Amino acid sequence: MCSNITAATIRQVATLARLGLSDADCAQYAAQCQKILAFVDQLANVDTAHIEPMAHPTAQPTAWRDDVVHSSGEADAILQNAPAQQARCFAVPQIIG
Amino acid sequence: MNYEPVIGLEIHAQLRTQSKLFCACSTAFGAAPNTNICAVCTGQPGALPVLNRTAVEFALRAGLATHCTIAETSVFARKNYFYPDLPKGYQISQYDQPLCEHGYLDCAIDDRTKRVSITRIHMEEDAGKSLHDVVGAAGSCVDLNRSSVPLIEIVSGPDLRSADECVAYLKTMRTLLMYLGICDGNMQEGSLRCDANVSLRPVGTEKFGTRAELKNINSFRFLEHAIAFEIERQTEILRSGGTVIQETRLWDEKAGRSESMRSKEEAHDYRYFPDPDLPPLIVAREWIEKTRAELPELPEAKIARYHSELGLSAYDARVITAEQSLAQYFERAVHGNSAPKKIANWLTTELVGRLNTDGTTLADTKVQPADLGALVNLIESGKISGKIAKTVFDEMYQTGATPDTIVARDGLAQVSDTGTLEKAIDDIMAAQAENVALYRSGKISVLGFFVGQVMKATKGQANPQLLNELLKRKLGGA
Amino acid sequence: MITQQSEQLARGDITSVALTEHYLARVAEKNPQLNAYLWCDTAHALAQARAADQRRAQKKNVTPLTGIPIAIKDLLHVTGAPTTCASKMLAGFQPTFSATVVERLQMAGAVCFGKTNMDEFAMGASNENSAFGPVRNPWDPTRTPGGSSGGSAAAVAADLCSGALGSDTGGSIRQPAAMCGIVGLKPTYGRVSRYGLVAFASSLDQIGPMTHSVKDSALLLGAIAGHDPRDSTSLDVPVPDYTATLSTDVRGLTIGIAEEYFEAGLTPAVESAVRAAIKTLQDLGARVVPVHLPHTKYAVPTYYIIAPAEASSNLARFDGIRFGHRSPHSDSLRALYEASRSEGFGPEVTRRIVLGTYVLSSGYYDAYYRKAQQVRALITHDFTQAFATVDAICTPTTPSTAFRLGERVDDPVQMYLADICTSSCNLAGLPGISVPCGFSENNLPIGLQIIGKNFDEACVLRIAHAYEQATEWHKKKPL
Questions:
Q1: Which A positions 22-51 lie with beta carbon below 8 A of chain C?
Q2: Which stretches of chain C drop beneath a pLDDT of 70?
Q3: Residues of chain B with pLDDT under 50
């Protein structure tokens, strides 16, 4: 596979992941990720034709919950952890769009 | 150059379970902000989702009622993006292995039926609400009461061709979901939301044009206006040689136009992957079949039955089935009654008319379905006249009294006894010799006068048909 | 320690308060140097100790863990204590609920004793990625204790608690256990509830005991294991009495040795100690046969695609809005997100989020993430095949002994290779334990790993116990 990871790639990824990276950061992470990806690229050598991807390590039956309301009692404690709140709501800068 | 609109609708319907999709918080609408919340639906670190069985049952009903193939194994996937009302930074949804696929819904538009394909129905959790313009707040505020309420997303194929078709499809789907008991259809409260993907292509071509996505459509009127506006907007662009931009547009009903949502449209890369916190959703064949067997009679089937078995016109059948409560009322009124068409008539014109005028709902009316049936029975059996029936109904509507009680109390029974009527006629004829002569001389319109006189004498209770018949005979010289 | 102390408490030789005070004093003395604990509150600990003593006095619901101080990795919620995950991102965060495993310990009457240091958000193999300073190895304070559960490992090894809970995603219990000369067990995936564990990689994470002895491990595992309706990935498999099946007899058991694990760039000391340990098991009566796990070398690259991918998604909730660090530079929503997250996350976490986001992104998903999940299936299949003929598989736990602080921080790939023997267990979901099996010339501990079949912790513990009882390594303490 061997992708070419540039600072621009990192910049794009950082945007998707909402990380505020400086140009220097982007260059540094690019170099590191290039090495890491070169390392993981060896998976391309493995023949995986017709192999189902494995999303869960142990075979798991569906886990169910009955449709019963239960008040958590944690609402106030949850709000207490909020860095900024207004009238019981989480306050954020104006959302545009 | 003539362009053909190509429209697909994505409907998000909130499932009316008691608790949320992945936690036990209440789904009740209208609670104070951030009261129906817990660690799971606020995305606290360390919290984990657990699936609501009833939500799956409801989704199954939707899939079965729209003739979809139900996947015995489907997968919950994470849709990753950042937004303040999305507490985990991802929405648990379904991606390439949804619960239902390849169905359809038949919709009546004017006098034709349009089959709209349903590409897929999948389950997902709702996001919270962002509130702007909250007093005292510099920015926006987030309320997570709605976070993780269960939704189904119903994606139609690009089969719709006009605003009317879109409205008809949305109405039909809404009615169906309400019949299934899985959604309350309350569009003002956001129980049912709709996004539209609209593009144009030259008539007769197959290739799809660039589409715009319309959001914030929460009423039939908005939908109609938004679609019409969009078709025109794109037509103008294409006619003037321009290109339609792929974008998301927000409908503004007040302004009567849509606005592009983002000036620089950021391509969304949702990075879908199977949610490792949730095992595959396995729905046993027995459960699917049981759900299928337990589906209530759906609108399509009702319409067909009303038409073929009860003799209603297709139009009346559609009107009555449009609201499940109306259909239920009708069926109870028809029970043990021999004139369903007449009941349909009384229901739609007299009762619903009055309800609409004074703003009462069918659930709150004092007129019991059985009593409406009884009233129609009285007319059919000739006990009272149609005219008298209207007065009886007035009282039924106001007080809830039964028709038999009213008729007995006021002695409103129609006089259908030949002897009694003949006597009344004889009396009038005796007192109106001149008019009798006038009639016999050829002025047959005088019949009306005699009808009026006998009616007066019988306090309006003379059986009109019988009276007419007898008068004609007697006046005619028999 | 737990076993002996439990007996002492039962006999009335000591009280939980005395025991707890003993450890509080030890922490006061040793923690400034070792930095094993991020939080250890006297009042919080003693209140629980007093309650435990009362319980014992009233003979109400006394269990072997009643009154025993257990250190909790700071990735697990304990109400009344902060959870930081060793990150600036969660400074000041007060959990609104306790983890299921913590609730179970509390039901058993254990004292939840302090929160231990770790690599930030469990990402690391040396505990050098903590925002609150590295942990030092009690055997040699110039060296790392391993990671990410470095604090828990050091706390147990340095006798700062009776036992501890850690978490393991690619080796984070077993590797520090090996490097600190203690016992560390990663249970089968789904054996122990993850509810209340701050998620790193959801399909790999498991919570497990870190203890002085195998018997202690069995005790602690029995207390925390079991189905939890709040964790959809926890399985409804009955929890046996793990202490009851401990035995010094391994006759009749077949142990597999995969040479692929010995090609992993082992240091000579590690290789000879582990091979000697296997010989000991053979002498004890176990049959030792070769097995083949041909995809072993792909475990680390597979892990380093899947784990960062899941982590990048799990860490998206840290956005400065509902909890945790919010940057003062937040005039726009975008700035809020970017500044808060960059200020809150350390370099390794940032690196893994970048990597994880990349391998999930459009155009790369199939080549990386999907491919890795396919190789994962092959690695798992290797084990399934092998377990058709053997009861357990023995390998080294780590390729080397504890490395020096600062030695690998600039070379991520080198650091990642510390997981070479351990990450396959997480990928396949299998249980694995590390027990001390020797020391290097410079007196650094070496660990033997025993891997079992799904939900066969009993077998793994039995072999580990037999080995432990036949040797003296577990009796050695750091100075």
A1: 25, 29, 32-33, 35-37, 39-44, 46, 48, 51
A2: 264
A3: 263-265
Q: Which of C401, C395, C447, C446 is nearest to C421 (CA)?
A: C395
- Write the DSSP string, C109-157: T-EEEEEE--SGGG--SSS---TT----BTTBTTB---SSSHHHHHHHH
Residue A21 has pLDDT above 90, yes or no: yes
Q: What is the domain range of residue B345?
A: 297-410
Q: Residue A33: helix, strand or coil by DSSP? A: helix
Q: Do B75 and B170 have their domain in common?
A: yes
- Would C473 be classed as within a structural domain? no
Do B151 and B256 lie in one domain? The reply is yes
As for how many domains chain C has, the answer is: 1
SS3 content of chain C, % helix, strand, coil (to 5): 45, 15, 45
Query: Which CATH number fits the domain that encloses residue C243?
Result: 3.90.1300.10
Structural domain for C146, as ranges: 2-252
Report the C-alpha gap between B301 and B297 in whole angstroms: 6
Q: From residue C274, how far is each of C251, C290, C389, C445, C472 by CA, in Å? A: 20, 15, 21, 12, 15
Phi-psi domain of B218 (left: phi exceeds 0; alpha: psi -120 through 50; beta: other)? alpha
Using an 8 Å Cβ cutoff, are C108 and C63 in contact?
yes
Number of domains chain B contains: 3
B with C: how many residue pairs have Cβ under 8 Å apart? Answer: 97
Q: Examine the predicted complex and report whether its ipTM is higher than 0.90.
A: yes
pLDDT tens for each residue of C350-390: 999 999 999 999 999 999 999 999 999 999 999 999 999 99
User: Are C230 and B48 an interchain contact pair (Cβ–Cβ within 8 Å)?
Assistant: yes
Residue of A56, A66, A72 lying closest to B279 (CB–CB): A56
Burial A17-26 (b: 16+ CB within 10 A, else e): bbbbbeeebb
What distance in Å separates residue B211's CA from the closest CA in chain A?
Answer: 19
Residue C352 covered by a domain: no
How many residues would you count in chain A?
97
| Final residue belonging to a domain, choices B226, B256, B290 | B290
